[in-house]
Design a protein that fits this description.
There is one protein chain. The chain has 341 residues and is an alpha/beta fold. The protein has a domain at 3-179 and 206-234 and 296-310: NAD(P)-binding Rossmann-like Domain (Rossmann fold). The chain has 11 helices and 12 strands. The strands form 3 sheets. Strands 3-2-1-4-5-6-10 form a 7-stranded parallel sheet, sandwiched between helices. Helix 3 (83-103) runs parallel beside helix 4 and helix 5 (182-191) crosses helix 11 (312-325). The chain is globular, with a radius of gyration of 19 Å.
Length: 341
Amino acid sequence: MDAAFVTGGTGFVGANLVRLLLEKGLSVRALARRGSSRKNLEGLPIEIVEGDLLDVGSLRAGCSGARYAFHVAADYRIWVPDPAAMNAANVQGTVNMIQAAAAAGTQRIVYCSSVAAIKPPHDRIPVNEQSCYADASEIPGVYKQSKFLAEKAALDLARQGHPVVVVNPAAPVGPFDIKPTPTGRIIRDFLDGRMPSYIDTGLNVVHVRDVAIGHWLAAEKGRVGQRYILGGENLAFKQILDILSEITGLPAPRFKTPYAVAYAFAAIDTAWSRLTGGEPRAPLDAVRMARHFMWYDSDKARKDLGYAPVSARTALTDAVAWFKTHNTTRLSGKIGKCSTP
């Protein structure tokens, strides 16, 4: 039986990937930090390797005997009080993982990057893998900078002979978004009635199951040293909210917040968070990102890998059902019994 090692298996994308790999008949090991929640992996027939991305010994143990290595773990937050810690996890952690997998003789290493590492369009025409930042200085936000630098390091290692394929998920939604992620928080805030207005922006919405499938396709068919956008459907933010309204029966916000107003509020909110140490409700970096319609073209993955994502409506429907079933919202009555976590 072929073995696979997955970092980030306790998280959103990783938990879906672990389940897919088990369905494919693989033996799975998953990295988990000591003392971290394993809730997303409860009941699964897998081996847990305790450690983290800066613990090279644990990475070597996880990769030992594995045919495939999937590096999905990342510090995915739009705002952090300590940028150095995020860079260490996302950049150095990626280097550590790839080097450990290569040293173990792993046949294929799939690195989960992000469309955050791809330069977004300045108009509303979706961009593909050829859209590149010149360097990290032109990228807004520590998270996006760290993903750009991590991807650059991964591709540099691929050029040195390491069997690395890069995938760039867009905005995944669906089951097991336990934290939730910033994208999942949009859905949860909608369900909680905490979205009185919206910004004129756009996202590429993809089912998290399709992102997991894209990882597997990259392991099987991806070309070493290449990157593949794993996207779904390009939608204006207002369209996303309207679909959520149709799914749930809840009203979508009708008021559009001007960008300047959103920017001013976010600047104050983020500055206050720096003083108090609390997480901002509207991080300034998120508003800066929202200035662009983050629309992407997945044709390369379709042609090279056979990638075929489902509709955004299906993805959003499954995400709503999961949040509802797992009582992760405060809403009650209209979409079922829910409670505060």
